[in-house]
Amino acid sequence: MSFAPHHPRFIFLFFIFIGSINALPFIATVNLSGGARAIIARDRARAQKFFAGVQPHGPNAHKLAKFRSRVTHHRGRQVTSSLGDTIHVTDTGVTYTASVGVGSPATEYTLLIDTGSSNTWVGAASDKKYVPTETSRDTEMRVSVSYGSGSFSGTEYTDRVTLSPSLVVESQSIGVADTAQGFSGVDGILGIGPVDLTEGTVDGSELVPTITDNLFQQGTISTESIGIFYQPSTIASSLFSDGELTFGGIDESKITGDVNYVPITGTSPANKYWGIDQSITYGSNGPSILASTAGIVDTGTTLVLIATDAFQKYQEATGATLDQTTSLLTLTNSQFDNLQSLFFNIGGVQYELTPNAQIWPRILNTEIGGTQDKIYLIVSDLGNPSGQGLDFINGFTFLQRFYSVYDVSNSRVGLATTHSTNAETN
């Protein structure tokens, strides 16, 4: 997982008012120490965890169905909002984070937004420990999750979680870490993946309701879904602009076309996550990079990862060379002038990743250990050959160009274009 690394090189602060929680600092951080090599290592380690599966026996379909019935048929459920509610989230250069309140009065934690896991927990930072309040309850159950590039273990509590004044969850399962490895720059994780990823993570529990599950069950949102809006990391967005999470709907103002949905893939292990089927071609009439196959959409992965044989085809098509300093593919200026778009065919709809969208933000080149005037590509090697049931990960750099929707109720993923899809500001 591409977690925000150690000491930030520069931090810009500005304040927004978010109602009764307090006027909290909204931090846009470019925080990339460790460089591109560290980003690639974390992404690949995370991918290997996805390949290994959630638990030794994997999610159990009948357990999941039983849990869904319990959640969606909660007696007396009253919907207090028929529209989605939006919170602002922060671009850290490699992913986005959210400011989340836990307890009453709330302590604010900076949590990494992760669609590839489903437990919410705090305590990763030694100077930001969990603060029990009158809404806290210690279940005395052990909780632990491995992310491939990191892990935590600790005790489960239930507590009030405040995402915004209108998005408050009562009795949410919260992991309180005794130990955490592989995290810095964040206090923990906001897990918004499928609920079956929680199986076996808490002693004595089959599945643990996620934040989204409980918002729906408690009547706060009318649809169990999350809309995510990210933006390219340019000079402007690195300093001031932000992303959004919309629980229970989508933000129509952020999209430029319809949201097109596809069902969760039936292929394992991609179907354990927000998995979809797609193919990739280079150029409108160019060669196939990746035949129709299964993979996942994931906010916790920074780069666009594709199977090794597909990566080799991409490198050949672009003429890129592997940069020994960053381990990213690099292009000359003339090669970039000839670079073609990548077309992702998802459910019969073409999503165009333009040449500008395929390169690392130039303003951040030196932050990843690169050279200021070089051109680095954001497509990298997954580390496994195709045909393994998870042949790509559309990560953070892909999601910066498209609006994405994670529809729990209908087991589907949606994508739409935004004003940033064809942006040429890079």
UniProtKB/TrEMBL annotation:
PROSITE patterns: ASP_PROTEASE (PS00141), PEPTIDASE_A1 (PS51767). CDD domains: pepsin_like (cd05471). It holds the Pfam family Asp. Keywords: Aspartyl protease, Hydrolase, Protease, Signal. GO terms for biological process: proteolysis. Residues 96-416 form the Peptidase A1 domain. The active site is at residues 114, 298. Residues 1-23 form the signal peptide. GO terms for molecular function: aspartic-type endopeptidase activity. InterPro entries: Aspartic_peptidase_A1 (IPR001461), Aspartic_peptidase_AS (IPR001969), Pepsin-like_dom (IPR034164), PEPTIDASE_A1 (IPR033121), Peptidase_aspartic_dom_sf (IPR021109). PANTHER family: BETA-SITE APP-CLEAVING ENZYME, ISOFORM A-RELATED (PTHR47966:SF51). Belongs to the peptidase A1 family. This is Acid protease. It comes from Lactarius akahatsu.
